[in-house]
Amino acid sequence: MKIAIVAMGSRGDVQPYVALGVGLKAAGHSVKLVTHENFEPLVTSHGLTFCPMPGNVQEVVESPEIRALLEKGDFLAINAHTSKLMKTVSIEWAKAGLVACEGADLLIGGVGDLTRTLAEKFQIPMLEAYLFPYTPTKAFPAVLFPVGLSKLGGIVNWLSHQLMRQIMWQSSRSHNQRMRSKVLNLPAAPFFGPKNDPKITPLPTLYGFSPSVIQKPRDWKNTEVTGNWFLDATPDWTPPEDLVEFLAKGPAPVYIGFGSMGSRNPEETADLVLKAIAKTGQRAILQSGWGGLAAENLPENVLLVKSVPHAWLFPKMAAVVHHGGAGTTAAGLRAGVPSVVIPFFGDQPFWGNRIMKLGVGPAPIPRKQLTADRLAQAIQTMVGDPEMRRRSAELGAKIQAEDGVARVVETIGQLGDY
């Protein structure tokens, strides 16, 4: 089967779909990965055909405007800002997608209307594949809403999912119409979003997280929680010598990194983190992205690293401090060590609260409320609580026993010809 996977967003958003592509290619399918141009090395290093979408998402995230909004944690403002940016790229994305998906038998995509619109254009099936809960349910609120909303009952939970989907659709509706009329020659979608066409979306909706982390709700029909879609390091990857030496010099350190989340005051953030580490007396590894932080001004118990595969690094840590992206959260849980989330926006608070409820990490600390004392206390809890460490190890073992990619490959293999 010829399959095109459309994956847009940060590296954490894209990497799980690369893992799906690798698994599908190994099963004999022809796979194209359609994503931002800056992810070409990630895609091609794993042997997949790369189809570029114009734009570099990292440059957008690192812009002063986005950094300011991330620190505020205002999802609606971030959504409005990115919607403005879409005006300049939506036509180009439609053109690139039209070329990339020509001749495909199946499209795979997550949040966003581009994949569905391309499936409508080519009249081919689309497999919806998500990294966080997106199907409406009465079991819990949508990931953009406070978890305390559950106290108001199942109907309110269900409505929150419908509202979240409308927020995302309405922010992109004008761009979708522009793509349809100027490039794809399609009629305008209904005001409340495209209707499900049984010819295009007859397939089960797949979720790339562990059922041990989020159990499938009873009211989810035609859905499957497959387990995570992990992408391990390429066989030729080797860790930097200074990292290997640092790990060998003492006890397991604590990892601290905020992924693609930026900061308007990187020096201030770095100073906060170093103060917290000093209070705990722990060794620590900081992931790069900390502007103003240079290796020569770090204490001996702290090492600054660039991009290191989480699958290799996290199992060697005593604990993990991160921003709560779906991919980083999954990697931390899989490693079997406690985690604490410093959420900025979006689904990050949801994952932070899920970690706390599972008993494998302290309560999340919103970025706006982060202090050296609070971070130090969270680190001490993760390192010093034997029950939390036991629960983390048990959950990690369950996740390690799952193979979400294989489940997706099996599901697609059972689809037959369309």
Task: Provide the descriptors you would attach to this structure in a database record.
Rossmann fold, 418 residues, alpha/beta, five-stranded parallel β-sheet, globular
Explain this structure.
The protein is an alpha/beta fold and 418 residues long. It has two domains: 2-228 and 402-413, Glycogen Phosphorylase B (Rossmann fold, 3-Layer(aba) Sandwich); 241-400, Rossmann fold (3-Layer(aba) Sandwich), CATH 3.40.50. Helix content is 44%, strand content 12%. The strands form two sheets. A seven-stranded parallel sheet has the order 3-2-1-4-5-6-7, sandwiched between helices. Strands 10-9-8-11-12 form a five-stranded parallel sheet, with helices on both faces. The radius of gyration is 21 Å and the shape is globular.
- Low-confidence segments, given as residue ranges, are none
Helix content: 40-55%
Mean pLDDT: 89
CATH topology of the largest domain: Rossmann fold
Radius of gyration: 21 Å
Total of helices: 15
CATH class of the largest domain: Alpha Beta
The CATH architecture designation of the largest domain is: 3-Layer(aba) Sandwich
What structural category arises from helix and sheet content? alpha/beta
Q: What's the N-to-C terminus distance?
A: 10 Å
Order of neighbouring strands in the sheet with most strands: 3-2-1-4-5-6-7
Principal-axes geometry comes out as: globular
Which series of helices and strands comes N to C?
A: EHEHEHHHEHEHEEHEHEEHEHEHHHH
